[in-house]
Amino acid sequence: MDLGISGRTALVCGASKGLGYGCALALVRDGVNVVIVARGQEALDEAAARLKAEATGGATARAVATDITTESGRAAVFAVQRDYDIVVTNAGGPPPGDFREWDREAWMRAVDANMLTPIELIKATVDGMAQRGFGRIVNITSSAVKAPIDILGLSNGARSGLTGFVAGVARSSLASQGVTINNLLPGAFDTDRLRNTAIGAAKKTGQSIEAIQEARKKTIPARRFGTAEEFGAICAFLCSVHAGYMTGQNVLADGGAYPGTY
């Protein structure tokens, strides 16, 4: 399917690896110019090189090594490219733990990274999108927004705040000006974060990493973890001309793990 976005320009956050990279990959394969952001210069440069090799239609891949959760980091990104047709927000989730141990500083870090940063990126780009008559914003959040996980309270709270904000702004006048804002909710995907979680569980329980992962897969109807490429394909569709009638939605990709009807 031709997504109809060749030649557009996208900002993809957290794109040196994992789900962010999967999204950038799907976009450059469809001819979208991407600006990828992450904090690690070396990993980001390697990702940009791989993206350039996969690009079609003369699409480009530029890398900005910065912390997008800071004001100076966002300024660095907009110094490279002021206007974007597509923005994919993505930041690593805050650490798990017991809510009794989280102080105000821990909460503010979580809210700043997983709620306020996406809002700042939306605020900085949607008016230009509306003036041009096309815009796509996809926020990578978490399946925990629909099915909260007790030890991920920081993530549950911050991402739910973003979800509530998007529910309102996506249905504003932006919707009639060709700008859509949606959230993409990953379940268990084969990423470094998932593997590190398995390593931590293995250390606590004495089980092997493989045993931990196999037990997790059994809780998923698809009986496997998702891949970054298939996640990226969903993201690219939400960015396409074919998804212009979808806005304010929470798109869950979890292999059927969420047991609810709605």
TrEMBL record:
InterPro entries: NAD(P)-bd_dom_sf (IPR036291), SDR (IPR050259), SDR_fam (IPR002347). Transmembrane segments: none annotated. Pfam families: adh_short_C2 (PF13561). Belongs to the short-chain dehydrogenases/reductases (SDR) family. This is SDR family oxidoreductase. It comes from Variovorax dokdonensis.
